[in-house]
From TrEMBL:
One of the GO biological process terms: mitochondrial respiratory chain complex IV assembly
Annotated TM spans: 68-88, 336-357
Organism, scientific name: Maudiozyma humilis
Similarity comment: Belongs to the SURF1 family.
This protein's name: SURF1-like protein
Lineage top rank: taxon: Eukaryota
PANTHER family: SURFEIT LOCUS PROTEIN (PTHR23427), SURFEIT LOCUS PROTEIN 1 (PTHR23427:SF2)
Main location: membrane
GO CC annotations, alphabetized: mitochondrial inner membrane
Membrane topology: Multi-pass membrane protein
Localization per Swiss-Prot or TrEMBL: Membrane; Mitochondrion inner membrane
Amino acid sequence: MFMSKLGLACAPRQRLLAVLPRCQLQSARSLLVARRTVVTSTVDWKPIKTHHNPNDKSEKKTSFGKRIVLGLMIAMPVVAFYLGTWQLRRLSWKTKLVAECETKLMYDPIPLPKSFTQDMCEDWEYRKVRIRGHFLHDEERFVGPKAKYGEKGYVLFTPFVREDTGEKILVERGWISEHKVSPDTRTLHHLSLPTGNIDIVCLVRPPKKRGRLQWAQEDTNSRLWNVADIYAIAESVGTKPINFQALYDLRDHPSWKTDMATVKDHNMASQSGRSWWQFWKGNGNGKDKSPEPSKSTAAARAKADEGALEFNELQLIKAGVPIGKPPSIDLRNNHLQYLVTWYGLSLLSTIFLVVALKKYWLGGVVSQSKLKADKLKNAKKYM
């Protein structure tokens, strides 16, 4: 108003500054600067571009890809819930199986049936059996390497001939040090290299097949094996594919010494008998009667081993005596973790599905309040 009264609205800056008195010069300068720096809001004439209209009632068009994603999101909670329920049934089954196996471990050892077949392994799994016979140490098999107490070693498998049937079976004697693989380096021979008929207690284990990612043994006649392939090892030594696992035992067995002495005496007596040229002297059948070794009963042998000394593991390892496995259940029961995982995944996928369906049915329509808020937010960029 002040500038229009003076007739200087269109005057240049130099004329304006020359005409105005000094008292009004400062206010005029501030007025010109204020007019130059003010930026008017663009809310009204720069709206946000959108294809959605709250009043638009046309049918929503969705692409084929969105339908596939939506279908997968609907199927995910259902599939995850089904798998969680399946793991719940598996958990109940595995718990009962572990309880049955633990009950079998509590039973006392029983004699192994004479007609024991591979089909009976599942029913006899984790049962302690008592077997009498002798080892064939010249057919030992070593599986490994496998470390124990930071020392390299192997798991020893030795064929065992039963006394009652003469059948050859495969016995997993336990872990042995690498330095005691050769029989000449072993001591405590009645424990490391027992000869003669002895009583051993084993755990019946069904044979396990070799994994797909494990290499097959090329030289089956070799004594060193990389994988405990019971089927291949049993075939190489001529036994049934049944794994009899020797139990963890640190006791001394004096009865095994008696059996060794009996066998030695019998062999010496047979060698120091009549000379080869006196074979015709004897009974009418031409057979020589040699004294049979005395056989002690199983109760007497068990009683003799009750008060025996007990070694520690390091002493047996240094002597080359195989260390058996403690009787335990090695069945894994991780179904509870799987159950929680699948049910949790089902819950999370259900939440995501609800959010996705909410956005899908709204169709992306922008309300008036939302549209106004977006306009104000966009207008702040130009203010």
